[in-house]
Design brief:
Blueprint: E1 3-5, E2 32-36, E3 40-55, E4 58-60, E5 63-65, H1 67-71, E6 78-82, E7 85-86, H2 90-98, E8 105-111, E9 114-120, E10 123-124, E11 131-132, E12 135-151, E13 156-159, E14 176-188, E15 197-215, E16 218-223, E17 234-237, E18 245-251, E19 259-268, E20 278-282, H3 285-291, E21 302-305, E22 308-317, E23 320-328, H4 329-333
């Protein structure tokens, strides 16, 4: 049975931080009380590397040509170094190409785990009068997920609940990132054999925090000091005593305000090495009607049972979009 992660790669993002009504739960001395999430979140993640996503032509004085294609570069290649200088951003790449004059560049490429060098001759674009090699590149990825929790004591947040992979199915690492407010404006419903997705609009004027770490447990970072957590719902973060049975999640499928939806925890496997600690079934008729079940963008939706935050939604079953996996909250918070 195939399962798919639910993080959307795109070109821009942001996230909304509106919470449910206030509700404080008494915690034991060794338990942590956190602010429950559920709001759609937009993340722009700097990867610290430059990846070729396409090959194009340059309109030079000799006509159209593509130095990158002539040198054998391909989409998916990572540009590691140029003339021995490490390349970590699109800006650094463009600066070196522009300063090359008519000098060929020795470009170190990483492809499918192998590293090699290609000699590329930049040409001057007749329209922009800038030197180019004919590549479309990126140094960041963007996508919509869901905030799971915020620790109000230290301003840290956790989101998503799973890793993010590139086109080569390799787990990504990030250098840093930004979080913005996001408004959900549409839904592609999930059906058997095809995962649905939330469609969001990033509100770039509402910067909400820094994304500092990406790992197999999700995205973690720090909320901006300018952001005020008002009317937040608080709960003890603990999976102690979690069992199959009724539970609920908070998720945002319209606008910026999260809502409570009924689910059932079908199976518990707290020590699963792939962080598939729960099998979750959506039982809320409204959520099934609107989305078909679990859709991309709902990753990180907090799971609550008996007034405790026990985990987060992470994956959807492609053969049954009403079911998916969840991660144990302690596993997330250890990061």
């Amino acid at each position: 049975m195939r399962k798919s992660g639910i993080f959307i790669l795109g070109t821009m993002l942001s996230f909304g931080f509106l919470f449910a009504s206030s509700d404080n739960i008494t915690a034991k001395a060794n338990e942590i009380t956190v602010c429950i999430g559920g709001q759609a979140a937009g993340f722009t993640l700097k990867t610290g590397e430059v990846q070729v996503i396409g090959i194009c032509e340059v309109f030079s004085e000799n006509g159209t040509e593509s130095p990158a294609m002539n040198a054998g570069l391909r989409a998916g290649d990572q540009i590691v170094k140029i003339d021995g200088l490490k390349i970590g951003s699109v800006e650094e790449l463009n600066e070196i190409i522009e300063k090359s004059k008519n000098k060929p560049l020795n470009i170190e490429i990483k492809r499918n785990g192998e590293t090699f060098t290609r000699k590329v001759n930049p040409v001057k674009d007749k329209i922009t009068e800038k030197r180019k090699i004919g590549v479309l590149v990126r140094d960041c990825v963007s996508g919509i997920g869901t905030i799971t929790y915020i620790d109000k004591k230290n301003g840290r947040f956790g989101a998503l609940g799973h890793s993010v992979s590139n086109e080569n199915k390799e787990e990504m690492q990030i250098k840093n990132g930004a979080v913005y407010e996001c408004s959900i404006v549409g839904i592609n419903k999930g059906v058997r054999g095809r995962a649905g997705e939330l469609r969001g609009m990033f509100l770039n004027d509402k910067y909400l925090g820094n994304a500092e770490k990406l790992c197999n447990c999700g995205i973690f970072g720090e909320i901006s000091g300018d952001f005020k957590i008002a009317n937040a719902k608080n709960a003890v973060a603990s999976s102690e005593g979690v069992k199959p049975g009724k539970a609920y999640i908070y998720s945002t499928i319209n606008g910026v305000c999260p809502k409570k939806y009924d689910v059932e925890i079908v199976k518990v496997d707290k020590f699963n090495r792939e962080n598939k600690n729960y099998v979750i079934k959506i039982t809320d008729e409204e959520l099934i009607f609107e989305t078909g079940g679990i859709v991309q963008g709902m990753s990180g939706s907090p799971i609550i049972q008996e007034d405790k935050l026990v985990g987060a939604i992470t994956h959807v079953f492609l053969n049954d979009p009403t079911r998916g996996y969840g991660i144990n909250i302690e596993t997330m918070m250890q990061e």
